[in-house]
Amino acid sequence: MPYIEYCSSLIFYETCGEGKPLLFIHDWNTSSRLFKRFCPAHFFKNYMVILFDLPGFGKSEMIHTMEPDTIRCIINKILDELCINEISVMGLCLGSVFALDYAIKESRRVIRLFLLEPIITFPCIFCLFFSPVAGRYFLRFCLKTKPGLWLFNRIALKHDGFYSKMLNGIVSKVNADNSLYYLKMLYVYSTINHYEKAKNINAKTVIITGSKTFKHIKKCAIKLNVVIPDSTEKKLGGVGHFLLLEAFNEICSIIENDL
């Protein structure tokens, strides 16, 4: 299995398919295997998808000294390893924050940007997990117990039972401390005015949201569509927050038509 070493930690990555390079950045509490599991096989005939697990998720080791720029440096190291100079980048939820940040800072390298369910500003409800003691135990309850997973899926995510069962298998394996670390990172990112910086993005951008997603994400998508010079917003009807599970074929069609 291919790994790179960064800050003495091993970061897992792999490539799938052949063709135009597309980097995928997964969301909070999941891993890159979500993409592999639901992506239609024909998509890999035309695109070389670069998948990697964020530190502390999936097969990647945690980096306990992560800063807002760490993910960008990891991506650059992977792309340099693969000798790729230009790339299309796709980020989902938390991954969209890293994707947007990367497109802002590496404008010469990013030629296309796909933001799925962008969560650029910090949702206040996540502050429940920031209590020094109670917050950590509450997060562990949500991730590690059946009642907590039910609560997390049914109330927080408003998702149906079929997809909940699949997600529970991934989410329940997550280290709660690592999960909390990313929430704190997201909070730090939210203090940066990404909307102002996004005005300088050169890459053609497609923002994809579900019609049944959270109001917070809908607001983020609208703002990004206004400030990014060359952007288009696509709304998928009848779809909630987990686009990859509910509408992956539609997403692939959007990417194929754009690339």
Binned strand content:
15-25%
| First and last CA, distance | 29 Å
**DSSP helical segment count:** 11
Order of helices and strands: EEEHEHEHEHHHHHEHEHH
Task: Let me know the CATH homologous superfamily.
Answer: Alpha/Beta hydrolase fold, catalytic domain
- Shape, please? globular
Q: What fold name stands as the CATH topology?
A: Rossmann fold
Largest sheet geometry: 8 strands, mixed
CATH architectural designation: 3-Layer(aba) Sandwich
Backbone CA Rg: 17 Å
Number of strands: 8
Low-confidence stretches: none
Quick check: average pLDDT?
A: 88
Description:
With 259 residues, the chain is of the alpha/beta class. It has a single domain, classed as Alpha/Beta hydrolase fold, catalytic domain (Rossmann fold, 3-Layer(aba) Sandwich). It contains eleven helices and eight strands. It has helices at 33-38, 70-81, 94-105, 134-144, 146-156, 161-171, 176-190, 194-197, 215-227, 243-246, 248-258, and strands at 3-6, 9-16, 20-25, 47-52, 87-92, 110-116, 204-210, 231-236. It has an eight-stranded mixed β-sheet, sandwiched between helices. Strand 1 and strand 2 form a beta hairpin. Helix 4 crosses helix 5. The longest helix has 15 residues, at 176-190. The protein is globular, with a radius of gyration of 17 Å.
